[in-house]
Specification:
With 147 residues, the protein is α/β, with parallel strands linked by helices. Helices cover 41% and strands 13% of the residues. The protein has a 3-stranded parallel sheet with strand order 1-4-5, with helices on one face. Strands 2-3 form a two-stranded antiparallel sheet. The chain is globular.
């Protein structure tokens, strides 16, 4: 049984690096009209509440996204990523210190155009169910497999 749960690590320094690169790759691919596929083998739950118990227990976001939240003198690469997370918080109704953290699937969806598709896999049953619920109504653009 696969037991890794991203909720305990959401928004940490590794996410900052990974999601900064992801934002730029997707924006680069979107320069052409042809659609792209985003395939995530470990999609997690899609997004996370950083004030929820699991994320608070590890508090890893404090050394990641939280350190970038109020900075304005960030390099353009980090600024684009940080603004993706900020925009997600504004849409969710909370623009304060990061509460909601979009995982890779949500960041991909935020950057997806009509012709782009997401294929998501998650092995952990709790997170697979959360992922399905999170992206309910997003078909056919988002395909989810929980095996």
């Amino acid at each position: 049984m696969f037991s890794y749960r991203h909720v305990f690590h959401a928004g940490n320094h590794g996410d900052v690096l990974k999601h900064t690169v992801l934002v730029h790759v997707l924006r680069y691919l979107s320069q052409k009209d042809r659609g792209w596929w985003f395939i995530d083998a470990h999609a997690g739950a899609g997004a996370y509440d950083l004030r929820g118990e699991p994320a608070r227990r590890s508090a890893e976001a404090n050394d990641g996204i939280a350190k970038l939240w109020e900075l304005e003198d960030l390099p353009p690469g980090l600024l684009a990523y940080r603004d993706e997370v900020r925009n997600y918080n504004v849409v969710r109704g909370d623009g304060k210190l990061p509460r909601y953290y979009p995982g890779s699937p949500q960041i991909a969806l935020q950057n997806a155009r009509a012709q782009d598709r997401l294929r998501l896999f998650e092995a952990h049953p709790t997170d697979a169910a959360a992922l399905r619920k999170f992206f309910s109504g997003a078909a056919p653009r988002v395909l989810i497999k929980d095996e």
